[in-house]
Write a structure and sequence with these properties.
The protein has one domain. A hairpin with a 2-residue loop joins strand 3 and strand 4. It has a four-stranded antiparallel sheet. The two termini are 16 Å apart. It is built from two helices and four strands, in the order βαβαββ. By secondary structure, it is an alpha+beta fold.
Length: 104
């Protein structure tokens, strides 16, 4: 079996709607268990939050816009976090960060 390639930080170039997804994340087709297993193999801890945690108002909610432009989520305070994605969910735009806790 080939060795799992460890995901690394990537250049973030958000699309015209403000979204971005790390290019090295496999497609899990919304399979939460496969996602958790991949994080474990990668030795990653992930954290995230919705845009409404950072902003009180935004055209996304007020005007039904489909973008998160103007939202600049801050990197978590701890050392060595990198962006996994900024994407839309059923509950609105979401940001997710990761850090490698386990040295593989």
């Amino acid at each position: 079996m080939p060795e799992e390639k460890l995901i690394e930080p990537a250049e973030v170039v958000r699309d015209e709607h403000g979204y971005w997804y790390h290019p090295d994340i496999p497609d899990f087709d919304e399979d939460a268990e496969a996602w958790k297993a991949w994080l474990a193999v990668q030795g990653l801890t992930a954290v995230g939050w919705h845009m409404d945690s950072d902003l009180d108002s935004h055209p996304y909610w007020e005007d039904g816009e489909a973008h998160c432009l103007g939202w600049e989520p801050e990197t978590p305070q701890a050392y060595n976090w990198f962006l996994l994605g900024i994407f839309d969910t059923d509950d609105g735009p979401y940001v997710q960060w990761a850090t490698r806790e386990v040295q593989l």
